[in-house]
Amino acid sequence: MKLNKSIGLLALTVLLLTGCDNVNKLIKSNDSEAKYQAAVKYYDDGQYTQAIQLFENLFVQYHGKEHAEDIAWRYSTALMNIKDYFTAGYQFKNFYKRYPYSEKAEEALFLSAMCKYYESPEYNLDQQQTKEAIAAFESYVERYPQSTHVPEINQYLDELRGKLMRKAYEIAYNYYETEQYNAAYVSLGRFLNEYPDSPYKEKAMFYMLASSYEYGITDNRKVGLYGRTYKENVDDIRESPTLQMLDIQERHLARPLKTFDPFFTEKEIVPNQILDFDQFLSEVDMVVVMVKHDHIKANADKLKGKVVLDCCNILKLDGVYHI
After folding, report:
1. Helix (H) or strand (E) holding 1
2. Angle at the Cα of 231 (from 227 to 232), degrees rounded to 5?
């Protein structure tokens, strides 16, 4: 039994050494056709490392000749199969440029984007590759909007954008964790503007309010929210971000925030609503502009001396924090 095992191991070792020796001999050979046939056989047998060595050697010899397109395609896919995504993506992109009329051109562009996707790291790492993957998929869909790959690409895009969203939230939240409260409420506000439907929306709103409190407004009753409607210059409060924020504040901070909206000056519709703008300003130290009504632009001078967080980027006053 031991003798049989020893013979088997010896045979395997000889086979591996012979395989490596064969590749080296073929690389040194001037018989391009034999080299090509051997590379294809290695490729078809799933021996991609040996195939890659031969295809690399054949590139120059077959440039512009028969088998050149096949060599480029097999070389690219072999690289992808050994998970060398960086080089594979580069080669697929080159294939697309070099053979734009090939029946494989569309697939090459898709696979070059897939290589970017596979290189995308976890959300907590640098997301440059993620951004490049998104751009590559978007470019593909723009060129081939009817492709059968579009549904799966949309799933990949959701995943990739989710990483960017998570990364953006963690960066903004980290400012709060490290007690950089000014940067925290600006960054969290920017996050809310960029990702209004994020699953982190409620947390972002909470920490944005908490940051304003920590930043120097020692009593949240001195924080006022300007605007309650869902958009500027209307009296419709359906899906109002201000009302959502008030709900979060009530559940988490348990301190009332004052509110004012120029379209609701006769009847109180929410608790702690102030009906007069001047009275509103007299009772708060910080104003968070939630809606870009024309009214706030016309009365911007009255905000001097207040801490102002402009979530709408409409005020041009010095000292206003813009998101």
Report:
1. none
2. 70
Indicate the angle between helix axes 68-81 and 48-61, nearest 10 degrees. Answer: 150
Tell me which residue of 281, 221, 214 sits closest to 254, measured CA to CA.
Answer: 221
Closest Cα to residue 310, out of 296, 211, 298, 299?
A: 296
What is the spatial distance between Cα 49 and Cα 260, in angstroms, rounded to a whole number? 69
Instruction: Supply 129's token pair.
Output: 């590759």
| Locus of tokens 């809606």 | 291
Supply 4's token pair.
Answer: 């049989």
**pTM higher than 0.85, yes or no?**
no
Domains in the chain, CATH or no CATH each:
2-119 (1.25.40.10), 217-322 (3.40.50.720)
Residue 260: count other Cβ atoms within 10 Å of its Cβ.
Answer: 25
The beta-strand segments (E) located in the chain are: 223-226, 258-260, 286-289, 307-310, 321-322
pLDDT digits (tens, 9 = 90+) for 65-122: 788 999 999 999 999 999 999 999 999 999 999 999 999 999 999 999 999 999 999 9
The tens digit of pLDDT for each residue in 220-257 reads 567 788 888 878 888 888 777 777 767 766 665 556 67
How far is residue 220's CA from residue 216's CA, in Å, rounded to a whole number?
A: 10
Query: Tokens 């949240």 — which residue?
Result: 220
- Cα distances from 288 to residues 55, 153, 205, 257, in angstroms, run 63, 39, 12, 11
For residue 288, what are the β-bridge partners? 225, 309
SS3 of 88, please?
helix
Residue whose entry in the numeric block shows the structure tokens 């054949």? 58
